[in-house]
From TrEMBL, chain A:
Name of this chain's protein: Phosphate transport system permease protein
Function text: Part of the binding-protein-dependent transport system for phosphate; probably responsible for the translocation of the substrate across the membrane.
Family: Belongs to the binding-protein-dependent transport system permease family. CysTW subfamily.
Cross-referenced InterPro entries: MetI-like, MetI-like_sf, Phosphate_PstC, Phosphate_Transport_Permease
Keywords, comma-separated and alphabetical: Cell membrane, Membrane, Phosphate transport, Transmembrane, Transmembrane helix, Transport
NCBIfam families to which the protein is assigned, alphabetical: phosphate_pstC (TIGR02138)
Principal location class: membrane
Gene Ontology CC: plasma membrane
One GO-annotated biological process of the protein: phosphate ion transport
Species for this entry: Alicyclobacillus cellulosilyticus
One Gene Ontology term of the molecular function aspect: phosphate transmembrane transporter activity
Taxonomic path: Bacteria, Bacillati, Bacillota, Bacilli, Bacillales
Pfam families the UniProt entry points to: BPD_transp_1
Chain segments annotated as transmembrane: 12-31, 72-94, 106-129, 149-174, 213-235, 275-294
Automatic annotation (TrEMBL), chain B:
Alphabetical list of InterPro entries matching this protein: MetI-like, MetI-like_sf, Phosphate_PstA, Phosphate_transprt_permease
PROSITE patterns named among the record's database cross-references: ABC_TM1
Keyword Nucleotide-binding: no
Pfam families, per the entry: BPD_transp_1 (PF00528)
Coiled-coil region: none
Organism: Alicyclobacillus cellulosilyticus
UniProt main location, coarse: membrane
Chain ranges passing through the membrane: 24-49, 69-102, 114-137, 143-162, 190-211, 261-282
Protein's name according to its UniProt entry: Phosphate transport system permease protein PstA
Membrane topology note: Multi-pass membrane protein
ABC transmembrane type-1 domain residues: 77-279
Automatic annotation (TrEMBL), chain C:
Cross-referenced Gene3D superfamilies: P-loop containing nucleotide triphosphate hydrolases
GO MF term (any one): ATP binding
UniProt xrefs under CDD domains: ABC_PstB_phosphate_transporter
Pfam families referenced in this protein's UniProt entry, alphabetically: ABC_tran (PF00005)
Record-linked NCBIfam families: 3a0107s01c2
GO biological process: phosphate ion transmembrane transport
Gene designation: pstB
UniProt xrefs under PROSITE patterns: ABC_TRANSPORTER_1 (PS00211), ABC_TRANSPORTER_2 (PS50893)
Keywords assigned by UniProt, alphabetized: ATP-binding, Nucleotide-binding, Transport
Protein known as: Phosphate import ATP-binding protein PstB
A GO cellular component entry from the record: membrane
Amino acid sequence: MKRRSDRVLDGWLWFAALLALALFMAFFIMLGTESRASVLRFGWRFVVTSVWDPVHSVFGALPFLYGTAVTSLFALVFGGLVGVCTAVFLVYFVRGWFRSWLGGAIELLAAIPSVVYGLWGLFVLAPWLQHTLEPWLGRWLGFLPLFQGVPYGVGYLAAGLILSVMILPTVTALSRDVLLAVPRDIHEGALALGATTQEMITHVALPYARSGIISALMLGLGRAVGETIAVTMVIGNRPEISASLFAPGYTMASVIANEFTEATTHVYLSALYEVGLLLFLLTVAFYVVARLFIRGIAKTEGNV
Amino acid sequence: MQPRDMMQTVHPGHLRWRKWKNRLFAGVIFGLALLAVLPLLLILAYVVFRGAPGVSLRFFTSLPAPTGIPGGMANAIVGSIVMVLMATAMSAPVGVTIGLFLAETHHARWQNMVRFVCDVLSGTPTIVIGLLVYAMVVAPSGGFSGFSGSVALAILMLPTIARSSEQVFRLVPVTLREAGHALGGTRTQVWLRILLPTARAGVITGLLLAVSRALGETAPLMFTAFGNQFWSNNVTQPTAALPLQVFTYALSPYDDWHQSAWTGALTLVAIALIINLFARWVSRTRR
Amino acid sequence: MLSIEIKVEALHAWYGNDEVLHGIDLAIEPRSVTAIIGPSGCGKSTFIRCLNRLHETNPGARVAGHVWVGGEDVYRMDPIDVRRTIGMVFQRPNPFPTMSIFDNVALGLKFAGVKDRRRLRARVEESLAMAALWDEVKDRLHQPAMSLSGGQQQRLCIARALAVEPRVLLMDEPTSALDPISTMRIEELVQNLKQTYTIVIVTHNMQQAARIADQTAFFLDGHLIEVGPTSKVFTKPDDKRTEDYVSGRFG
């Protein structure tokens, strides 16, 4: 026998659960419908051409895809490296109150609003890049196309650096948790063989934690790809593809942010919706990949 | 077999090299960990030093003014608070219920789907949430509004609230639930009288973190709340929000507006840190 | 055999503020098996973990006293050298799950700087043979270590420890997680290995100690109560507490 209150409660639970699913479907349906005009009109050309000309209603999103790829890969490499190393530092080199204090400080980075990152990037980081770091890099590494050209300050490098900082808390916190879950007897097995701390970490602990760390990096990458405001403020907003990290560029998220309220024609709006749809699909894909790696951990642990 | 015959043939300097490598590794790790803390310190320092000179009563009580005339961000602060409160009112009941659904029911397949959806939504770019709300609320209703802004913030908060409450509900010991059922309580009574009160501190912590995130978000408001230079006493009208105002002022060409942007940023950071520290305190005192 | 391989003097150990070993003195002859017995929590595991300086890697752990191995003071050596001289096998088989059988055995050699493939391979084969595992794995050296059974994994861990050619092999209840047949194989193995190595084995199984040890030491509450030839400890112990324990009256 089921009480009436329980039936009401069940109904309310199912309503909430289905609402979440409906919301998810709504993203596909709304973004799909709204971008229809652009998809039909430009087809594949939308993602492989680089002319973005609202006046003549010709839209190729390649510069934005490129900008998103460059800035988030930069963040993945740089922020990912710093994040994983910080996690190693927290797990193997400090203990007790200092570990929790430092871990807490890095998690606070996640609490800072992205507009504040943007503000800092625009008024502090970009001028420093323009006058100090970029000329210096140009002088010593200028033989690489990455570091050639006029230092603008705002551009791919500024956006990549800001994104590196913004994904740090995600990467550090998740990698730290994964490393803390490496069993103690695995560590001791390595030490008992005469391993140094470094050998224990690089030969045994990191390989053991590999899938978890990759999934942390994937979630960080997802965050970098979708970040809007901070990037919009420091990337320079120029829809062009440049090999140089010093050059201004544009990302998918920032073109939506900058142009959506100004888009006047139907096809212009539709093109921006299509950029949004691509962005949404990308983050879903990164999440799925991250999940597959998490499943990988469950498998390794099941065998131990 | 003679033990120890081979080790002696290993180069005697090898151990020294390994130890050197070990120290180098420790040094690099230490350096990169310092590098990780540096931006937090730099950002906080700059926000305080650049923002503090603009802190005044006027900043918190008056409207934005044209450049050259001292103004404030009172309407943006109020707009942010109103929209986040509305968003919380929409999101919290649904989010906590989803948490209950995920932690307390036995529909594994549906739960996995909902959990997956929540995790994807929590990683969805906030600008895309703005697009969705524009298509679903703003365009049909005929214009930007504070209400649509709070819908966007509610969508943003929902997955965070759902997953954090799920985790809190899971921490409640099974024995408590069983004791409730043994007293003859219905499921509704057990959940409302035992589960929710026990999990309250944790649920509130999750809510606070979601609120803190919503207060700082700019992107989902750009084509929903849109922003406003004046008081808007009507949520069907465009509404100002603090992060939006900081964004607009930062990209303006005027020095006094830049100053206001820094002061607005200081306000945002202060609010975020206070809420975060408070949330940690709540979760610690209850455990 | 009058020489001494391991000499322990006034060894104290702490976990935080808890003293878990209260001054242990013990001498062990080369190429012998010494069993450490005693009820749970008596400090027997801590004791052998002090011999290869693994105890001090626990947060808050501390050691005082002296341990000499082959005449060298372990606490004046570099811990990495110590652990290469003293191999260890753990309670639960702990092969490195991300590595193959071959890589598990070769890892210690790689740490030690052996790069030559032929020498690595020869040494891996030799160690696996000593651990009585070679015949079972020679056709699948590059399969994951986790594909082995529990008993095979433990013998793999023994091979891993032997590969770096230690003088001493410490075994911390190496058969407590294994079935009787695997246990028997490990016990046979210990009998063979003692011709080359000095072995210290912690066990909670008194029959096992009686079967394989030349010398037995009985620990209680962090004190070494009695040590002597195994037959004497089990049949004519000097101390009443030893007698109670070996006759099963407590523990």
